[in-house]
Amino acid sequence: MKAKVSIDKFVVEYKDVTFGAYFRLVIRAAISCELYKQTIYHGDGYSHELHLKKANGAYLHVFYRNIKEPEGSAYTLRLETRPEYYVQFKEVLDRLRSAASGIYYVSCDIAYDVKTSMDNVIVFPKDGRRKMRHYKGTRYFGDKHQRKTNGYCRNYNKGLELLENQSTVIDFELTRIEIVDKPERRIPLAELLHHPPEQNKHYFAAMVTDWDSLPKKRAEQTRRLRDGADIEEVTPYIRKKVKETLAHPYQIDFNELAREAWEPLLEELCGVLLGQQKPQVQERHVQMAVTNTVYDEPKEENDSKNDGCADFGKYRILRNNTGIRMRLNQQRMTGLFELRKMTSALWSRPSSRVQQKSSTFFVFPLKKSPPLIYVYCK
């Protein structure tokens, strides 16, 4: 079952940001009239909160120094806002990027919109201990204090929400399923595109528009699950049978939908946060040399100087290079000669034969340098 996928809120963390960098951010926000509110706490959570807001309504929540972090000179800084608002705070992002040691993905709210009424959308958790509660027509899966935890879910009438909050009228029924994705470990932002969320393990969802096509008893059990029946009313066996009945063609596959939309949704956003057009996995910088040798053919068919090479993707690592080794040996011998001159000068004063003889103790060859690795581009 197809649905439109979007991201409603996106949270990232900047590691090792100093107090100086944070207070410079506060001062610049005050000068630019973007400072909406600043708060300092001494309890749980973050000790500093900064809320920025532009004239057009774009906002940015800044949280600095988690209370659980040990004392030091640099702490974690967290940003939270809607994806489309990040680009409007590009100057802030550029300053933080240069001040931090790394940027990591924390969480986001993934929304699945289906064009039908809430009566036709069935969502129930895989874990029977996660209870459903109702408030003003919205179905919540989890308690209020679990709002930012992985797997927290809301199911509500999106058309009504657009009408009440934005005065926008749509001419069709629209239901939204919004699930929080918060991995157990922080993912480097440069690698995020390779980690789409997997939310089928948390919830089963289906859309049924033709209830008459289901057996009468099964349709009644499905409605009870849709409305949040307790585990005493609907046993695990009944839940299993309902899932088998709705698996095809009614199921909403969260994993497949998120996998298809993950890169298109986040490619531009990650580029803005990382300061580049397209996010790439950060690689170790290597020193490359220019060579005229063509490596399109297998290495065993090349000339003999490439014996013992190893291929890694588009790079070839060569372990033998006579010319460079000769220069390094000359440099090592030069260093040895300078060391011999220095020690000879120190012991040039008249002294006993024992002292002169023992002076040779300070003249020793330098340690042999480890084999060098040279990387050539194919």
Brief description of this entry?
This protein has about 375 residues and is an alpha+beta fold. The chain has helices spanning about 20-30, 90-100, 160-165, 215-225, 235-245, 255-275, 320-345, 355-360, and strands at about 5-20, 35-40, 45-55, 60-65, 75-80, 100-115, 120-125, 130-135, 140, 155, 175-180, 185-190, 205, 290, 310, 315-320, 375.
Describe this structure in words.
It is a single chain. The protein has 378 residues and is an alpha+beta fold. The protein folds into 2 domains: 4-274; 284-378, no CATH class. Helix content is 28%, strand content 27%. Strand 8 and strand 9 form a beta hairpin. The relative contact order is 0.11.
Helix content: 25-40%
Low-confidence stretches: 278-303, 312-320, 346-378
The geometry reads as: elongated
Number of contiguous helices:
8
- Summarize the biggest pleated sheet: 11 strands, antiparallel
Report the structural category: alpha+beta
The amount of beta strand, in percent, is: 25-35%
Overall mean pLDDT score?
Answer: 79
State Rg.
32 Å
Question: How many individual β-strands?
Answer: 17
Give the distance, in angstroms, between the N- and C-terminal Cα atoms.
Answer: 46 Å
Number of domains: 2
Order of helices and strands: EHEEEEHEEEEEHEEEHHHEEEHHE
